[in-house]
Amino acid sequence: MNTVLVDLDELISRLDLPAKIRLLTGADMWSLPPLPEIGLDRLVMSDGPIGVRGEQWSAADPSIALPSPTALAATWDVELVRRAGRLLAQEARRKGVHVLLAPTLNLHRSPLGGRHFECFSEDAYLTGEIGAAYVEGVQEGGVATTPKHFVANDFETDRFTVDVVVGEQALRELYLRPFERVVRAGAWGVMTAYNSVNGTTMTEHAELVHGVLKGEWGFDGFVVSDWDGGAFDRGRRARWHRRGHAGAVRAVGRPAEAAVREGARAGIGRGRPRPPHPAPGRTRRRPPPHRHGTRRRS
Prior knowledge:
Blueprint: H1 8-13, H2 17-25, E1 31-32, E2 43-47, H3 69-74, H4 78-94, E3 99-101, H5 124-140, E4 144-145, E5 163-166, H6 168-175, H7 177-184, E6 189-192, E7 196-197, E8 200-201, H8 206-216, E9 222-225, H9 234-243, H10 245-262, E10 283-285, E11 294-297
Parallel strand pairs: 2-3, 3-4, 5-7, 5-11, 6-9
Antiparallel strand pairs: 1-2, 7-8, 10-11
Helix pairs in contact: 2-10, 4-5, 5-7, 9-10
């Protein structure tokens, strides 16, 4: 594969503010708009992780379905998973997809997890090694990956609004560890989670996104929010989820433009109180009606 070096700062400097906002908000459910002034074609993303859905949710556009990631991880065979990644890259290119929204690196914390079939294992080391092979296989075919959901989104109930309170050691040794491994494997993207961690939503979490992911680990790829997850506060994000994706795109335009113009993103993740780290042990508390939940982990 030929590598072309470009000056991204120079390209971005050619864009006016509305064009930059279009890149932040997207053209539709699955794509970014083309920007011919900088040579950027339309960029298409698609769900995985056991196949490539593509833009059409129709039986007229079938997809190859691989065994679930849990089954793949149970083989402990990184070369097999790397081959599966190459197959997924071929499928993505057949469907005109540039970015595969996978793999899912969250851990099996409970058999009741509704999306655990997307995840590899309850073990952080195995998840990291299998996830790295998946990333390498897909990207060998020229298709980007976005390991997700960064971080501590290891459950389905209330995953859009919950605040996960977790101690530093558990966060590092369990939940962050698979992501660190795929960054070393060269992942081109990372998807942030809907949830908060220790009081701050992951899309706004300067300590984990800028400090750990980009600072400590040296990640130089792109960070994308989960769908509708880039709102400016959790209340608005929940309302947007009820309104649907089109409403979210329409609503975000002017506030996002104002935020970019005023430099509001420079203060991301600041000024929000952090609850104390939990004592050893893990408890789960269901949230009262109409309020955000909290999950404690250690």
